[in-house]
Every structure is written in structure tokens, then in C-alpha cells.
Design brief:
This protein has about 180 residues and is mainly alpha-helical. It has helices at about 65-80, 85-105, 110-120, 125-140, 150-180; strands at about 5, 10-15, 25, 35-40, 45-50.
């Protein structure tokens, strides 16, 4: 019987031989990971790819994020996976703004917090990295442009990298203070 291995947990998932060639989305019954299956039957094998981009890189800092921030990141991943590129970028920006609001306080927007970061000795070297988001966010959140796949992929990966930097330099300090 044909089977695939889950790309997340390694569970064997059997595919009905009468359903071949199977092309579509499949969720692992063990861990729930969504995968895209491309079956080249009878010429070749089965290709399995992740349906949504992973947040694995954020595992070391995931416990520092609020449920809202985690939700925004998972939603960004899902949006990227289904081709909702503008929504993906918007969710990335929302996650960043939420994190920066916890660090600096207030209810400002991303541009406001970029200014705060420029003055922050811990993060000032990262402001060039995040300031590019200021213009992109304005175009995404105000109907100026529709994001393309490459835009969303870039924003998603940059957001993950920034969150790692910010979490290690700032959020860990906030968490230690609140536990003291």
C-alpha cells in the first residue's frame, strides 16, 4: 500500500491505492501538520511538501510571545501557504507591532515604534532592518498595492528574524522583570 511520511512527526500515512494519483492537501492524523501531496503515478513517486511555512526557527522564543502574537504568526504562515500574500504581510506587521507595544508601551503604529527602536541602544543597529517595513506596511494596510508571493515570503522570513532578535534582546528582559 502506498504511503508517505509526515514531514513534521515522521508518522506513516497510508494512501488508498485506488485514489492514486493523489494530488492535494493532506493533514497528518498524528500531529495535524498540513502537507501538499503531488503524486506522479505511474511515472514516478510522491512529492510531499509543507502546506504552510514553518515557525520552527521561533521555537527558542515562542514562550516569550503572547497568544495574540503567536496567533498572528500562525495566521501569517497560513495566509502565505494559501496565497493570501497581502494578508500574510499584514499579519506579520501586526505581530511585530504587538511585540513592540509590550516593550515600549502605548498604542502606536509601526512607524512610531521604529523611531523608538532607533533611540534604543539594544536595538538601534536593527533599525535599518526594520525601517524598510514602515513603507511596506503603509502600502499593504492602505489599498496602494497587492502583495506578490516574493513580497510575502520576504516579509514573513524577515519578521521571524526580527522577532528572534527582539525577543532575545528585549522580551527576555521584560519576562525576567515580571517574574521577579
Amino acid at each position: 500500500m502506498p504511503h508517505i511520511k509526515c514531514i513534521a512527526c515522521g508518522q506513516d500515512i497510508y494512501i488508498d491505492p485506488f485514489a492514486r494519483p493523489y494530488n492535494g492537501e493532506l493533514a497528518c492524523p498524528n500531529c495535524g501538520e498540513h502537507m501538499v501531496i503531488r503524486d506522479d503515478y505511474p511515472k514516478g513517486g510522491i512529492t510531499v511538501t509543507r502546506a504552510f511555512p514553518s515557525l520552527e526557527e521561533l521555537k527558542p522564543v515562542m514562550d516569550l510571545l503572547t497568544p495574540l502574537e503567536k496567533s498572528r504568526l500562525w495566521e501569517a504562515s497560513r495566509c502565505l501557504g494559501v496565497g493570501a500574500y497581502t494578508a500574510c504581510e499584514s499579519m506579520c506587521f501586526d505581530a511585530l507591532v504587538s511585540i513592540l507595544r509590550r516593550i515600549y508601551g502605548g498604542k502606536g503604529e509601526l512607524g512610531h515604534y521604529i523611531s523608538k527602536m532607533e533611540q534604543d541602544p539594544d536595538l538601534s543597529e536593527e533599525t535599518g532592518f526594520i525601517s524598510s517595513f514602515k513603507a511596506i506596511r503603509n502600502k499593504v494596510d492602505h489599498p496602494v498595492r497587492i502583495s506578490k508571493k516574493l513580497d510575502a515570503e520576504s516579509t514573513f522570513s524577515t519578521t521571524k528574524r526580527l522577532i528572534l532578535i527582539i525577543a532575545k534582546k528585549k522580551l527576555s528582559k521584560i519576562t525576567r522583570k515580571s517574574k521577579a
